[in-house]
Amino acid sequence: MSSTTPFVVRWAIIGAGWISEQFVHDLAMDPSTRDVNDVAHAIVAVGSRTKAKAEAFIKDYCPEGGFAQKAGYCDLPVVAVEGYDAVYARDDVDCVYIGTPHNDHYFSAKAALEANKHVLCEKPSTINARQMKELAALAEAKGLFFMEAVWTRFFPLMYALQKDIHETKVLGDIHQVNADFSIKGVGREYLDEGVPLSHRLLNPDLAGGAILDLGPYPLTWGLMTLFHHPENKLAPPTAVSSSMQLHPETGVDIFTTFVLDFPKMTARANLTCNLVVESPADCTARIQGTKGEIIVPRPAPRPEKYIIRLDNGEETVKEFPVPGNGYHWEADAVARCLRDGLKECDRMTVSESIMSMELMDEFRKQGGYEFPASLAQ
Ligand SMILES: NC(=O)C1=CN([C@@H]2O[C@H](COP(=O)(O)OP(=O)(O)OC[C@H]3O[C@@H](n4cnc5c(N)ncnc54)[C@H](OP(=O)(O)O)[C@@H]3O)[C@@H](O)[C@H]2O)C=CC1
Ligand SMILES: O=C1OC[C@@H](O)[C@H](O)[C@H]1O
């Protein structure tokens, strides 16, 4: 093929659920629709606990595999596989995408790494820091790539916003970041309608709750703006404090607010998530500096614009339309890392996933959210 042939990643998908459906949609998109030509994605296997479910998933969402197969860059078909272990055992898989509930991430990621597969694992990477540290050590020992799939970090919007506040310094010195990602998951009317407490959001056996499910997004806004600020020099937040309200029946957190201090900049992140009421539509994140503020409208995971409002009255709206679902940018980043032989991605490092899990462990400790004894850890 010509020198413009893209580098192809052969993906396997673990868990035929909602997020896997969203992810494969984007792997099947033509990368040139987002101005990408150097990498392309193949989907070679979908693993489910039930073979019929994997077959139906492929038929409905990725019958031709990924773009690489459609374009002739990969001649493998996409196959339905019963059981996750049978996927890890395949020789034709480069990287495994794990789209299972939180409680399973550690076990699936560990099995995939032990079978010498690179891993992109949905957020949160694990349910506690100890598990994440184990995965980090295993990936390192095996020389394999591991990344937590915090997709928002890879949006062009996030790069542009960081440039504005970290390099151009449009806001002057930054002192405060507020971010909220909340969804109406367990409001009164939902409970009255009998939304099952067994759902992964509410189920303690699946490590449900707001902090593990939604918390990664306000945390992302806090970390990408303050932790990654050049003046912070990647110093972990100090004086971490949090408050939780727990679900009366299942004990998972339904409201969590946490505060991270970054004293090198005299800056603070006030971050929140809940499963009861929606975040405000017009502002999911607000970054305040000495010259003005940036407002990011909802939703926190998939932002499409931000507004720079300066104290001198100037206002600028920056728009970043998202082609497809928006998961392709993280997939492209993984592909480039694999192409370049990197074991982690500098946009979402393994050590930052460990730090995130340490923070979440602390929030759960402060808020009294204890995992049930039945939850394997
Ligand atoms: N990045 C993002 O934007 C989003 C990320 N997520 C993350 O993705 C993960 C999955 O969420 P989502 O897709 O909404 O969940 P779903 O319940 O829709 O899918 C999860 C899949 O995991 C498999 N699974 C394995 N063990 C279990 C179990 N004990 N109970 C239920 N399912 C199990 C099932 O696949 P099978 O039966 O085929 O084996 C199931 O379909 C979570 O970690 C969540 O945090 C979720 C939504 C958005
Ligand atoms: O990552 C997520 O983003 C969207 C939410 O609705 C979902 O529960 C969560 O897992």
From TrEMBL:
Q: Which GO terms describe its molecular function?
A: D-xylose 1-dehydrogenase (NADP+) activity; nucleotide binding
Q: What is its EC number?
A: 1.1.1.179
Q: Give the family, as the similarity comment puts it.
A: Belongs to the Gfo/Idh/MocA family.
Q: What class of enzyme is it?
A: oxidoreductase
Name the record gives this protein: D-xylose 1-dehydrogenase (NADP(+), D-xylono-1,5-lactone-forming)
Task: Please verify whether the record's keywords include Transcription regulation.
Answer: no
Note the PANTHER family from the entry: OXIDOREDUCTASES (PTHR22604), TRANS-1,2-DIHYDROBENZENE-1,2-DIOL DEHYDROGENASE (PTHR22604:SF105)
GFO/IDH/MocA-like oxidoreductase domain residues are 163-294
InterPro entries, sorted? Gfo/Idh/MocA-like_OxRdtase_N (IPR000683), Gfo/Idh/MocA_domain (IPR050984), GFO_IDH_MocA-like_dom (IPR055170), NAD(P)-bd_dom_sf (IPR036291)
Give residue ranges for domain Gfo/Idh/MocA-like oxidoreductase N-terminal.
Answer: 9-147
Task: Write down the chemical reaction(s) this protein catalyses.
Answer: D-xylose + NADP(+) = D-xylono-1,5-lactone + NADPH + H(+)
Question: Per the record, a Pfam family?
Answer: GFO_IDH_MocA
The alphabetical list of record keywords is: Oxidoreductase
